[in-house]
């Protein structure tokens, strides 16, 4: 079990505060992993309350908030090694609530029968592994092939916090929709898909919030200020994502997180029209426009002609806190009207219905989705007489993964 963390002010190296305004009990504000059982549920409610107030918080719970959204391998391994019976029980309960999308694949197929699937994919941590250098978050060629294969059968969109051009540079598939900057910059396919789905002809920019362009000079200025103010923090990397600025801290020593939080907050105070949100190992400065990945999902469904339709099944796969907006959007559609899949090895509060542990499992899931034999269910055409070798390989991979999970 994870040891309770020490007082954050001491651990983070920021000046100790006389008291913390955060309502979390004791000094362990957001323990990772979360406390289990009934007390765990209560603590989770407190944690939610804390996170809702994140922009107003000081370094104390700012650091804890960063920890909560950014589990590290070391903490996760320590938690796993020290996991007691209660933790195992809670983990099993979490898996019961958010079962593996691979294990429940047949159930998802049954739910999608006679309906058009629309696939939404986050990029970092979903299609590519989380790596130290955000500029080196490349996806594998096999993952690219799986996404390409899915896009042949279903409208497919990449929804990312990165700017659209950058995420396109990683994915390199012109037949997809791209929603960059958390959905604030959406563009249709640059070339027609080979599938028969919606007239995915070349389209220009589909959407940018009306006031978004007003923010561009401000975002430029904030980017410069953040580069300047975080220069003294080793490992901090500031990325201009056009309609938002990302401050990556995956290479920053945890003792410096408090200082980084204060630096970002300090800059943000000068820009009341911008807000701070958090993702996995990243702080993000965004316009105060009411737009997020959930709105982008709804917009794309509408653009594809599925507004108010029940014969469509959106599937969203993502690993990040910002993906929760999309999972909630699916929940709002009603029971069985969407499939949210969280990519995570560890129990997390989520509005997703299913889980996958890592990008390798996402690859497998996408491969199976585009299995010609299964695609038959969705597009009503006869399956090929023989299953391809890749399908056989996928089945073997699936068996290996399921067996590994069972151990
Ligand atoms: Mg992600």
TrEMBL record:
InterPro entries: HAD-like_sf (IPR036412), HAD-SF_hydro_IIB (IPR006379), HAD_sf (IPR023214), OTSB-like (IPR044651), Trehalose_PPase (IPR003337). This is Trehalose 6-phosphate phosphatase. Removes the phosphate from trehalose 6-phosphate to produce free trehalose. Trehalose accumulation in plant may improve abiotic stress tolerance. Keywords: Hydrolase, Stress response. It comes from the Eukaryota. Gene3D superfamilies: HAD superfamily/HAD-like (3.40.50.1000). It is an enzyme of class 3 (hydrolase). GO terms for molecular function: trehalose-phosphatase activity. The gene is LOC107546758. Its cofactor is a divalent metal cation. Pfam families: Trehalose_PPase. Signal peptide: none annotated. It comes from Zea mays.
